[in-house]
From TrEMBL:
Domain Mechanosensitive ion channel MscS stretches: 114-179
InterPro entries named in the record: LSM_dom_sf, MS_channel_C, MSC_TM_helix, MscS_archaea/bacteria_type, MscS_beta-dom_sf, MscS_channel_2nd, MscS_channel_C_sf, MscS_channel_CS
GO MF annotations in UniProt: mechanosensitive monoatomic ion channel activity
Similarity-based family: Belongs to the MscS (TC 1.A.23) family.
Pfam families listed in its UniProt record: MS_channel_1st_1, MS_channel_2nd, MS_channel_3rd
Keywords, sorted A to Z: Cell membrane, Membrane, Transmembrane, Transmembrane helix
Mechanosensitive ion channel MscS C-terminal domain location: 185-267
Transmembrane residue ranges: 25-47, 67-89, 95-126
Subcellular localization: Cell membrane
Membrane topology: Multi-pass membrane protein
One GO cellular component, as annotated: plasma membrane
Name under which the protein is recorded: Mechanosensitive ion channel
């Protein structure tokens, strides 16, 4: 019995020593992996800042700068993950083989992101828009802030940040309002039936002539557009420099409203004529 107790004591001591040794080795492995992660993140941040600084000094399209910066960050993050896995004791060759064996499944899962990556390359190659342009796409309008490897970031007029997949932008319809230096501004003003069209046209011409932001070439266009149910509609078309579009649009609206009231030109209200049949 004494021998058995002694053997059991030695067995437990050996197990405890083995557990302590393995625990210490595991703890050291975790510490190494954690240190690799921390140092890697610091290096990635330094490299990202260095690349941004170098790109800023170069005369490179801002769209390319944001795309390259995003691509470098993703590549470095993948390398960091592989380094951390290696620090944990997993053979990187085995890890790579595991990724290769799961390549089909991963490819199917990431097919959307691969399409977005290809879309980003197409955008940079054919340049349907660039950073700073105001575009409308996928039912959203905004100023392009960044073109990343998977998404393009738009800032809407009410300061919302919208992320649109590059795949959708490269394959769908995109309206670029900033590509041309000039834009046409259109209005349709309705006046009462019985108003003198020549008088209304002369008043509008005077309003337009006072606004120096409106271009004279091409010349402004004013015409009687339609005889609507309750109004005579007059269409007005002028050309302005693209940055002045909204200021001119709202400014002329205000000027027309004030001047029409001053000149006694009436705006119409919806009207319904009811005919009663006498018995």
């Amino acid at each position: 019995m004494i021998v058995t107790a002694i053997d059991l004591s030695h067995g437990l001591e050996g197990i405890l020593n083995s557990l302590m040794t393995q625990g210490a080795a595991l703890g050291w492995t975790l510490i190494k992996a954690f240190l690799v992660f921390i140092v890697g993140r610091l290096l990635i941040n330094l490299v990202n800042k260095l690349i941004k600084r170098v790109l800023l000094k170069r005369d490179i399209d801002p769209s390319v700068k944001t795309f390259v910066g995003s691509l470098v960050n993703v590549v470095l993050t993948i390398l960091l993950i592989i380094s951390v896995v290696g620090a944990l004791g997993v053979q990187t060759t085995s890890f790579a083989a595991l990724l290769a064996s799961a390549g089909v499944a991963v490819g199917m899962a990431l097919s959307g992101n691969l399409a977005n990556f290809a879309g980003g390359l197409i955008i940079l190659l054919f340049k349907p828009f660039k950073v700073g342009d105001y575009i409308e796409a996928q039912g959203t309008g905004g100023t392009v802030k960044e073109i990343q490897i998977f998404h393009t970031i738009l800032a809407t007029p009410d300061n919302k940040m919208v992320y649109i997949p590059n795949g959708s932008l490269s394959s769908g319809a995109v309206t670029n309002f900033s590509r041309q230096t000039t834009r046409r501004v259109d209005w349709t003003f309705g006046v009462d039936y019985g108003e003198d069209y020549d008088k209304v046209k002369a008043v509008i011409e005077t309003i337009i002539a006072r606004d120096s932001r409106i271009l004279t070439d091409p010349a402004p266009f004013i015409a009687l557009h339609a005889l609507a149910d309750s109004s005579v509609n007059i269409v007005v078309r002028v050309w302005v420099e693209s940055p002045n579009y909204w200021e001119v649009y709202f400014g002329i609206n205000q000027a027309v409203y004030a001047t029409f009231n001053e000149k006694g030109i009436n705006f119409p209200f919806p009207q319904l004529t009811v005919h009663r049949a006498d018995n």
